[in-house]
Design a protein that fits this description.
alpha/beta; 25% strand; 267 residues; nine-stranded mixed β-sheet; two-stranded antiparallel ribbon; 25% helix
Length: 267
Amino acid sequence: MIPYIVYSHSEYVDILSAQTHYLSSYENKILLINKSDIDLTNLYSNYKQVLFYDDNLPYASRLLKLTELDLDYILFIHDIDVVVKRNDVVVEQLLDKMIEYDIDRIDLQYKNIIHNQGTETLLIDRDNSKFYLNKQENVKHYIYNVQPSIWKMSTFMEIMLKFQNETYRTIESESMQVFCQKYRIFKLYWESYVNCGHFGCIPFFQFIHLTHAGKLLSLTNNNLNKSLVSIYDSILEQFKLTETRKFDTRIYGPEYYHGPSKIKEWV
């Protein structure tokens, strides 16, 4: 099974606890976190391995700690993107497709972009799982982003080394998008998708982006499918997140949740 790498920080232990809970049945996972004085022994015990990065380094340089791992492919995810529903068989099928077609990255966020003939598109149609992988070349569509992804490790580390001074907030820059045009990066598409809060997901891999700038996803203006509302409520209650964090109170219009990433677009 592909190794999951969960990136976190000690300031997000409350969020990390939720992520760890929902990944409890998945044994092959590694935690990447900063060193701290907090006793997190019980939390660490849920992971196959724990790597510690230097908190003084910028985000991209922290990720270079992963060069210590002898791994060809990983599923990289942040603590705040809590994986609430997943199909491990389908994820392994994606890994097989990556190896077969020498793909550098598969973005696990849904992207509703259909390409004209000439742009590489792969159909996944196995075990009742059917969707497209579309190669990304348009810099306006975030060829690179920080969302959950399956990476070829060598490519991931090459990119982080090139942009080692970037922070979490600056790493999705235009220069990054242009640089990543040379890689074989694909995004997921199918006619139906699940609203997972800030993002759209294909049913086999659903994650709730719990926080934005440290604030919790709104209770009322959150773009969650009905099937995920009760799960989100349960997370808030079980991990007492409302005691440690405030809700995001910004008002998002329909263009935020149903803009270019959700509207069929011919390019």
